[in-house]
Design brief:
Number of strands: 8
Order of helices and strands: HHHHHHHHHHHHHEEEEHEEEEHHH
Number of domains: 2
Oligomer: single chain
CATH topology of the largest domain: Endonuclease III, domain 1
Radius of gyration: 24 Å
Structural class: alpha+beta
Largest sheet: 5 strands, mixed
CATH architecture of the largest domain: Orthogonal Bundle
Number of helices: 17
Distance between the termini: 50 Å
CATH class of the largest domain: Mainly Alpha
CATH superfamily of the largest domain: Hypothetical protein, domain 2
Length: about 350
DNA sequence: AAACCGGGGGC
DNA sequence: GCCCCAGGTTT
């Protein structure tokens, strides 16, 4: 890359002054680096921050994470999304204790052998925690480098990702590669933003190809996403004679795996929502119910589809609830429901049900 | 290579 | 509404 050492220096100087005061930078250890990187995958720093504080408080060491019940980790993760990260975090912590004597590995192959650690996270840990020369390529780096070099490839392709990894590696300094990686990401987060970047205060604008032609927002080049489908979901609020509500646990193999929810499912064809509710409760639990009053519908967007969640008060007419797929069931009093980890859409029904959110 | 996997904030 | 975020895993 042209002006390589000048860009390195400008980035380092800028970062020395503008780096945010973040908790995993204050008391940095391999564990805090690992934990923060997992929490921040596809997650903005501002959103991950309270979760990081919670996790270092609940699980100060990798051993604490390894011996914790998984449900406890999922509960602490509740609301952050991409719950496979929490499941993998628990598995990886166990493996780190067993295979690596409780130390976060400092070898690329060892790190990548752990669940939840791919190329980005391995490079981040190796460079930031261990000072090794591995370049990171995250969303920020993609944006900064594609603008600097007017990179024309579609960054959603693996070929383009490889080229950007090479670019990032070329730009990596021998001295303090970890700080350089952090600086590049910090610049992407604070200055080189997706829309309306602050080029007038950017330390590397004079080296930026996109800025020189006034086309900052034309990079990175990426293909448009397909429109996402919408589904109606009907769930039953089933209450026992002693005022306990029936909830079930999602399987690990399902989306939102390991979280608890009100039983129900997706509307099929032209059936009514009440029919959906009755059919799903028969299929999943083997019970016939009387579907009563509806709760206020809740809209929610996932990454690849949208739903409207319809809750119905239901009364069992016949049968005893038994899961069709070995899902765990539980009858819970309202006061205890907040001890279970629920998906956000389910939680949006809590208020109307008189359930305390617990936070 | 492409699909799948959450939730929230900014515009 | 749409886009994007300190990406990884599965198919």
């Amino acid at each position: 890359m042209v002006h390589q050492s000048e860009i390195q220096q400008a980035l380092a100087d800028w970062f020395a002054v503008n780096a945010r005061d973040l908790p995993w930078r204050r008391a940095q250890t391999p564990y805090t680096t690992y934990l923060s990187e997992i929490l921040l995958q596809q997650t903005r720093v501002d959103q991950g921050l309270p979760y990081y504080e919670r996790f270092v408080r609940l699980f100060p060491t990798i051993q604490d994470l390894a011996i914790a019940p998984r449900d406890e980790i999922l509960k602490a993760w509740e609301g952050l999304g991409y719950y496979s990260r929490a499941r993998n975090l628990h598995r990886a912590a166990t493996e780190i204790v067993e295979r690596f004597d409780g130390r976060i590995p400092d070898q690329e192959n060892d790190l990548k052998s752990l669940p939840g650690i791919g190329d980005y996270t391995a490079s981040a840990i190796l460079s930031i925690a261990y000072g090794q020369p591995f370049a990171v390529v995250d969303g920020n780096v993609i944006r900064v480098l594609s603008r600097l070099t007017t990179f024309a490839g579609d960054v959603n392709t693996s070929a383009a990702r490889r080229q950007l990894k090479t670019l990032a590696t070329d730009l990596l300094p021998d001295d303090n590669p970890g700080a350089h990686n952090e600086a590049l990401m910090e610049l992407g987060a604070l200055v080189c933003s997706p829309r309306s970047p602050s080029c007038e205060i950017c330390p590397v604008s004079k080296f930026c190809g996109a800025y020189s032609i006034g086309r900052q927002e034309d990079f990175p080049v990426k293909t448009k996403k397909r429109p996402v489908p919408h589904y109606d979901i009907a769930v039953g609020i089933i209450t026992s004679d002693d005022s306990r509500i029936l909830i079930q646990k999602r399987l690990d193999t399902e989306m939102l795996g390991g979280l608890w929810e009100f039983p129900g499912g997706k509307r099929e064809g032209a059936e009514s929502l009440k029919e959906t509710c009755a059919r799903e409760l028969m299929e999943e639990l083997g019970i016939t119910v009387d579907v009563g009053k509806a709760l206020t519908p809740v809209k929610h967007a996932y990454s690849h589809f949208k739903i409207t969640l319809h809750g119905f008060y239901c009364t069992i007419e016949s049968g005893e609830p038994e899961s069709d797929a070995g899902r765990q069931l539980d009858w819970v009093v309202k006061e205890n429901i907040s001890k279970y980890a629920f998906p956000s859409a389910n939680r949006m029904l809590f208020d109307e049900l008189g359930i305390d959110s617990g936070d």
